[in-house]
Amino acid sequence: MVVCQFRAKEERRRSYTCTHNTFGSINFSVRHALLHQPGRFRPPLLSGLPPRRRRVECTGQPGPQDDPRLPPRVADVLQNVRAPVDPLCETYNFRCIASDRRGFGSSHWNGPDTKKPVDWDTLLTDVISLLQHLEIQDFIFVAASMGCTESLLAYQSSKFIEERCKGLVWLGAIMPFPLQTAEHPLSPSLELWDSIVGGLRDNRAAFVSESLPGVFAIQAGNEIHPKTLEHFERIVAEADSLAVVKTVEIFNQPAEAAVKKLAESAVQIPILAIHGDADQGMPLEASAQIVKEMVPWVDLKVYEKAGHGLYLTHSGQLMEDLVSFFRQVENA
Q: 325-331 contacts: CB < 8 A, separation 24 or more?
C-alpha cells in the first residue's frame, strides 16, 4: 500500500510521501524497504519487541539510500526497492517512504505484548499509527490486491485518515467478494484458498515458484526475467511462516459492507481502480467491475494482458496513470 502526501503548493519542489505494505505470498507489490531506527516507530502491539521494522526514505534527492554508513544488510534491502520506486523519485521527484507489513521483511508477526490474535483491527492499527507517527498531511492511498481492502477500512475507521486521505488507487483489488458464493461464482473458491494455505504450509518454496508465473500472467505473453522471479521468491522466503498463512485468512473476509458504506457516503473521494483482463486469481468480473457497479464514480481502467502483478509487467502504463491521477487530485 502506498501513501502519497502532498506538500504545500507554494513549495517549488512537488513532493509526495509513500508508505508501502506488502503481502509476501499473494500480493507481490512494490518491495518495501524500511530500516526501523531504534526509538522511532514500532507497531503499537509490538512495543516490547526488538526494533526490526525496516524503513528507508527516497526523496529524489541524496538521502538515506545513498548513505555509505548504512550496514550491508540495509544496502541489500534498499537495492530491492529502488527499481520500482526510482521513477517516482528520480523522474517525477516524489518523496517515497516504505514499510513492511508485520511479519514480512524483518518485522515480527506477534510477541509477548500481543494480547489477542492478530486480526484486521491489528493491521489497521499498524497503518494508522505509522501515518500518525509520521504526521502525514494530505495524501493518496495506493494499494494492490489485499491492500486495497486495507486502505478502504483504514479510511473508514480513522478520523485522522479520513481528514487527510484525498484519493484511493486500487491495483488488482480482491474486494468486495474474495470468496466464491452462489451469487458470485467467479470469485476464488474456498477450495482454492485452502490449496493456497496448504501449499504455503507444505512446501512454500515450491508453491511460490510454481505460482509466480500466473501472478504475472506469463501465459498471456508477459515476459519476466528469471532473476526477477527469484527475487520475489526470496521476498516470500523471508516472511514469517505464521504471517504468510494468517494474512491469507484475514484478507479472505468479504468487504461488501465497506464498499456499500463507501457508495452511500456523502463524500465522493476520488478513486482510481486498475485491473488486468488476464488476472486469473481475481478476475475483473468478480472484483473491480463489481466495485465500479456499486460505486459509480470509481474510474476503472482495464489493462490488456495484465495479471495480478500488473505493477511490474505494466509499470510504464501504471506510472503514467498514477501521475495523472495524482495531479488531478492535487489540482482539484
A: 325/140, 325/167, 325/169, 325/270, 325/272, 325/299, 326/4, 326/16, 326/140, 326/167, 328/270, 329/140, 329/166, 329/167, 329/270, 330/6, 330/14
Name the maximum alpha-carbon separation found in the chain: 57
Residue 212 CA to residue 232 CA, distance in Å, equals 8
Number of domains in the chain: 1
Please give the grid coordinates belonging to residue 202.
507444505
Cell numbers standing for residue 100 = 513492511
Rounded Cα gap, residues 60 and 57, in angstroms: 9
Q: CB 92: neighbour CB atoms within 10 A?
A: 16
Side chain identity at residue 112, one-letter code: P
**Which tens digit of pLDDT belongs to each residue from 182-232?**
888 988 888 888 888 899 889 999 999 999 999 999 999 999 999 989 988
Q: Is the pLDDT of residue 43 over 80?
A: no
- State which amino acid sits at residue 301: K
Lateral strand order in the sheet of 139-144: 2-5, 139-144, 165-171, 271-276, 299-303
Residue 74 is predicted with a pLDDT of 31
Amino acid in position 120: W
How is residue 64 written as a grid cell?
Answer: 538515506
Q: Cell digits for 148?
A: 486495497
The parent domain of residue 308 ranges over 2-331
> Which of 135, 145, 169 lies closest to 155, judged by CA?
169
Could you tell me the CATH number of the domain that includes residue 164? 3.40.50.1820
Spatial distance between the Cα atoms of 299 and 170, rounded to a whole number of angstroms: 10
Residue 235 has pLDDT above 50, yes or no: yes
* Of 102-106, 161-165, 229-233, minimum mean pLDDT range: 102-106
Instruction: Answer whether residue 132 shows pLDDT above 90.
Output: no
